[in-house]
Design brief:
alpha/beta, two-stranded antiparallel sheet, about 15% strand
């Protein structure tokens, strides 16, 4: 496993991180969760990403139970807050009140004294940005949070937060969590470079495009144990299951084969070719998936392979 620093901080995270949305605390039972988390740790994964609202909190609880036997100092635990935790007016957003209360709840669920990374799950237009920044700074001073980041903020929002933090002598975010993959390259146009210039690394979610880039749906296949076959877990997959897109994904197979890589390893290594990306977050339900994904760490794709991929699935600047 290779590691990269998160933003301009000294925090090192594994190139392959374990994402937990739609897996831990929901489609994976307690025994399976423990098995996956412990195997990930053994393989060098140190970044475990979750959120307060995943499976209504059950995801944090499941992860907390799974990490209880692992050495805490070797783990990078990341969670998030923003989305409503109830129908009460203050149980949402990025106000000081909600951030403090969400952090306390996450600490209890995860069974830890501190969070390595806490992320603002979306931008909150109803809370002054300065209030959010001050809340994070105070949580960090209290030792409950070590670093803070954002998720799916616009370029302008990221730059505003960094400028305000710098002007006040405060603490800027160190990461942005973005959607990025061979088939979803929007951040290449501006956002990726702007965040890097501002001092933020990217944590990438859905780098395998909900499993499509693993090749499991090649030739129109719909495996019974795949996410597309599960109505609850496939709600964001419709755009990925387009026949024309799947045909182009199939065209990546010879590239992976020429390099001795699986389709998943090719897709993850393609993301990690960007130095602005610190880690790709993968969601797995089986050990075989995890072990396959981890094999992408440290793989350097030849320029010719990247060119062939661009010809099949061009980016926004192409």
């Amino acid at each position: 496993m290779q590691y990269r620093h998160l933003g301009r901080s000294g925090l090192a995270v594994s190139e392959i991180g374990l994402g937990t949305w739609l897996t831990l605390g929901s489609s994976v039972d307690a025994a399976g969760t423990r098995e996956i988390v412990h195997r990930a740790y053994d393989l060098g994964v140190n970044l475990f990403d979750t959120a307060d609202v995943y499976s209504d909190g059950d995801c944090e609880l499941a992860l907390g139970r799974a990490i209880a036997e692992l050495p805490r100092r070797h783990l990078v635990i990341a969670t998030k807050a923003f989305f409503p935790a109830s129908d009460r007016p203050n149980d949402r957003g990025l106000s000081r009140k909600h951030l403090f209360e969400s952090v306390e709840t996450s600490l209890r669920r995860l069974g830890t004294d501190y969070l390595d990374l806490h992320q603002a799950h979306r931008f909150d237009p109803e809370t002054p940005l300065e209030e959010t920044l001050r809340a994070y700074e105070d949580l960090i001073r209290q030792g409950k949070v070590l670093y803070w980041g954002v998720s799916l903020w616009t370029t302008d929002q990221v730059e505003a937060a960094c400028t305000m933090a710098t002007d006040r002598g405060g603490l800027a975010p160190v990461s942005e969590q973005s959607l990025y993959s061979i088939v979803r390259r929007d951040i290449e146009a501006e956002h990726l470079g702007a965040c890097e210039s501002a001092g933020l690394s990217q944590l990438i979610f859905s780098p395998l495009a909900q499993g499509v880039l693993s090749g499991k749906y090649g030739g129109g296949a719909r495996p019974a144990d795949a996410r597309a076959a599960d109505p609850q877990r496939s709600v964001f997959m419709n755009d990925y299951l387009d026949d024309a897109l799947l045909a182009r994904v199939d065209a990546l197979r010879p590239i992976a084969a020429d390099l001795g890589l699986t389709m998943s390893q090719l897709a993850l290594a393609w993301c990690l070719r960007k130095t602005a990306i610190a880690s790709t977050l993968v969601g797995v339900t089986r050990l075989a998936q995890l072990e396959d994904n981890v094999g992408a760490s440290g793989v350097a794709l030849p320029a010719e392979a990247v060119k062939r991929i661009d010809e099949i699935l061009p980016g926004p600047a192409s």
